[in-house]
Each structure stands twice: as C-alpha cells, then as structure tokens.
Amino acid sequence: MTTTTGSADFKHPKCYANTEGGCSTRISGEHFVSHSLIRLYTFDDPNVTIQHDNGFGVRHPVSPRRFVANVLCEAHNNGLSDADAAALKFATFLREIALRYQNGSGDWGVNESVEISGDDFQRWVLKLLATHAAGNALTANGELVKSPILDDSIHLLLNRAAWPTTWGLCVAADATNPELKFDPFSRIETATDNWWGVTPMLKNGDQTLIGGVVELAGVGFGLSLYNPGRELPEFNLPANPLRGSIRRPSVMAWELKGVRKQVNFTWDDHHEHKNITYTMQRS
Ligand SMILES: [Zn+2]
After folding, report:
1. Which of 37, 167, 261, 276 lies 20 to 30 Å from 184 when distance is taken between CA atoms?
2. If you measure from the C-alpha of residue 200 to the centroid of ligand 1, how many angstroms do you get, rounded to a whole number?
3. Distance of CA 216 from the midpoint of ligand 1 (Å)
C-alpha cells in the first residue's frame, strides 16, 4: 500500500471512503476509470477526449485528466494505487495479444502468462463501481440514480475486512450468458475504443450499490456485495447477470490450438479457487 497522509480521526465530507476517518484535508480528482488505463488505450494522444456515453456523469468530451469525480480524499485515493496497477497489468497483457491477433487474421503466438493479485483486481472493480455511485454517474432504466454505498463495501475497498466467501469477483463460465463477456480477442474494438464499461446492480427500493459488471479489455467481471445464492435455482435465471459464473478464479486462460494465454490470479484468502479455460476457434 502507498503511504497515506490522512489523519486518523478526520472524515472529509466529500470522501466516500470516510466511514472510519483516515482522510486527508484535500479532495483529489478520482478518475472514473484509472488514468493509467486511459493512457494505455489512447497512446498518450494529447488530443484524445473521453466522456460517459449514458448521458450522466461526465456528459461532454473532456481530456483524460478531467475525467474525474471529486469523491475521494488524497489519502484514500493514493491508498488505492495497487488496485489500479492490477487492472493495468491485466489490460496490458490482453491488449497486446489482441492487437497482434487482429480478430484472427494476425498471429496468436506462443504460450504466455501473467500473474496478477486477484485481491487488488477485485478492489479495482469495487472502486470503479463505488466511484461511479459516489460521482452520480450510474443509471438504471435510463434514469440517473443516487446510489448509497454500504459501509461494508468501504471496509472491503480499504482492506479493512476479509471478503465473505459468497461475495466478490466472478467471471464467465457459461457461454450462453451474454452479460459476462469472456472473449477479448474476437472483437478488436475491445483493444482500441470499446475497452471498458460499467453496469451496476442496485438493491430494489433504496438503490444501494450491491454489485455490478465491469468490463475491461473485452472481459466482464461480476462483483457481488451480498450472497447471490449460487446454490439456488433462481441464480441461473436470465434476470441474473452473474448466472453461470465462477467466483474468484485462480486461472483464466484462452486456448487456441493448444497454445494458451493465461492470467494467474493470486489470492490471500484460503478459499477454493477454480480455473477456467476458454477454448477458441479461429474464425
Ligand atoms: Zn478519505
């Protein structure tokens, strides 16, 4: 973790992570999606602009520097840099392969793998969702929603609590669920323009943030901040965007003719972690 300069009993009123103090006095511009990722996908183009395409949040094209919400103090923002680094590592790995592969007309290459902290990556997914909730950039049915963030979510974001076994990150293990994407290599736009997305899951009634799906580099990551009841038949109903998923994988691999591109996620907990291999066919 990066050192923070917050003071133990100060709660900055604009910082959504202020539940137990530890805030610094300055509010920082927290990027809706990591600045390092924007740089990766825009090649540092000085003329590039970015905006939300749902009509809320940042509604007009702005420079990447200004694609921010003033919703975290500097101390809490700086403390989340490991999460940004994990997402950058994941996207860099898949993007390079996708650009070489060119939807199948290019080169798949040789076996490659990368190791990424699953704990940090999971916190990045949570941070993206929470920043959108705090920054008034979430919509449901085309309407702007004001979505409260649970204190439990903040504890998990700041590594103050262990994730309950039934909560957390999940990835596709059922090809028939279009809401959890798992093919980063057959849609080249996911390596160029259309490289991220966010769809929240909100509690009926008060619209509390209870999870969502965040896309990065053509891969959908589900997150639940509650027990979604995987053992129940309702879990597999079409209304559930997390249906057919597996929790906190230790390996996500894409295989074409025996050659694997593999992401190894490391986890600090002692839960069981499954592997998933997506077998590709050259079209
Ligand atoms: Zn703070």
Report:
1. 167
2. 23
3. 26
Q: Are strands 259-266 and 112-117 parallel, antiparallel or unpaired?
A: parallel
Distance 148 CA to ligand 1 centre (A): 16
Task: Give residue 123 CA to ligand 1 midpoint distance, Å.
Answer: 16
Q: What spacing in Å lies between the alpha carbon of 214 and ligand 1's midpoint?
A: 24
pLDDT (mean) for 229-247: 95
Ligand 1: centre distance to CA 76 (Å): 5
**Does residue 36 sit in helix, strand or coil?**
helix
Cα 269 from Cα 118, distance rounded (Å): 10
Residues 244-264: what's their mean pLDDT?
97
Q: What digits encode the pLDDT tens for the residues 172-209?
A: 999 999 999 999 999 988 988 899 999 999 999 899 99
* pLDDT for res 283: 57
Query: Residue 1: what pLDDT?
Result: 41
From residue 112, alpha-carbon distances to 30, 96, 116, 217, 240 in Å are: 33, 11, 13, 17, 33
Q: What whole-number distance in Å separates Cα of residue 158 and Cα of residue 208?
A: 19
